[in-house]
Amino acid sequence: MTVVHAPVAETNTVAAAVLAVRDLSVGYQVGRRIETAVHGVSFEVPPGQVLALVGESGSGKTTTAHAVLGLLPGNGSVTGGRITFRDQELTELSGKGWRDIRGRAVSLIPQDPGTSLDPVRRVGHQVEDVLLLHTDLDARARRRRVYELFDLVGFTEVERRYRQYPHELSGGMRQRVLIAAAVAAEPDLIIADEPTSALDATVQKQVLDLIDDLRRRSGTSVVLVTHDLGVAADRSDLIGVMRQGRLVEWGPTKALVAQPGHEYTRKLLDSVPSRNAAPRTRGVFATGAGAPADDSGHPHPHPGAGAHSSTAPGSRAGTVPAAPGETVIEVRDLRKEYDGVPAVDGISFRVQRGETFSIVGESGSGKSTTARILTGLTAATSGEATLLGTDITRLGRRGFRPLRRDVQIVYQNPYSSFDPRFDVYDVVDEPLRSFQEPRRGLRRGRRNEDRVVAALEAASLPADFVNRHPRELSGGQRQRVAIARALILEPKVLVLDEPISALDVSVAAQILDLLRALQRERGLTYLFISHDLAVVRAISDRVAVMRQGRIVEQGDVQDIFTRPADDYTVRLLDAIAGHSLTGGLS
Length: 586
What we know:
The chain has 586 residues and is an alpha/beta fold.
């Protein structure tokens, strides 16, 4: 076992390292005091290797990366330690010194291409900016070099891509533009800050494959900042685990994953869905007397639960009958068109009471449009969708209103779905006010207080959260508030649209545990929308795989994951990160 625990002692390998960080501390000026965000962090990155910095939000990993790049905000500063790139001390650089090194020798692949690219400039010109700053190439040579870079990152029609604006490209294509800009000057070190967190599994794999290929060709070193341990395990040579601003351990990836030395690292690894996914019984998560409890007291699924019965061969792309029982949702030949282009193209499925039916697929596959139709937010073009015995395709928004007591939705980003004026009480109480009486501004009725507190407690939040504001909460706490709001009307169906894709792995595991417990206690039916197949395997009874508006196959979760019938499903499964943790999911 060769895992090293921070702080790292000085060694004779520092001279050989592309990047050496020693006892780094970073603080932020808050009023008259300095709040320390990074405490004495030490690590090094050898030539041509990938160091993954992992940890939950607020662990200090991005602050560390930004300190290396000299990109701390105005109130942030390095308060101690050294950052050595090759033989150069970065903490002593002036503004001009940073401009000379940043982009040429050290470059950044940022997290969000949507905010990192100028929306009013062609993407080719934005990549060309790097060459203008750091090379002596003339205009014609710069354009040829951008064409070469676009070809390198996997673009076809490179001249057309050069002329396009960011809004004309998909998320994966925009991320490729940022990678082209990052490697344009052939840097020795790339800092990749959550470069794939907003991407589908297949696009994520393509982007990570591209970074790997570029690294092998050029010998570039990479610091990969990520909260995805599956990505870190598959794509790094070294892992550094950060918690509360400290590097709790770091070392070779294979050794650290096989035998983590710190309790926090073990907790993170145990939270990866692909690592602990287990089959579940139909409609109810299996539990046993010996099942371990999570931090809210709810037992985890029992690891010995058996798989469901398999579906009949040859029926996977059509309507697959669910297990006998009450049909809560039935969709037949459902279609939704926008300007004559189908977003949902003749899909059919059934969902039984108390089960979890998941719809998976890449962005643009039609899964979220399906969810919007089933929650009355979008009208279908044709077909039938029956919800709790009512054909909702024949209802307008006013006609759908009575069903909203029984059907609630939990969104991917709860904060954007909260009224910014509301505290937690008002957020959770809003559905009650909407159904009980005409709205009276923001006045609080005490007759709802017990129900609000009960809903919060059901979502594993304390009663005193009623007076807090969502901006004061973590991402996981906000998602629990959104679940409490969905529960307060005591619905029969929850539509969960990417409910954990924006959360850290350990927080996501807590939310999944909460959903398991609520389904077990209340007999809830879940329609679960996700592009994360590892999560889908952990929570689902049955799965439908969508591509370009159509269901290419559907069936029992174990059958889909162990015996996929469609080539597209095979590609989705192959793209799941974390095979280094599990040896594959099959």
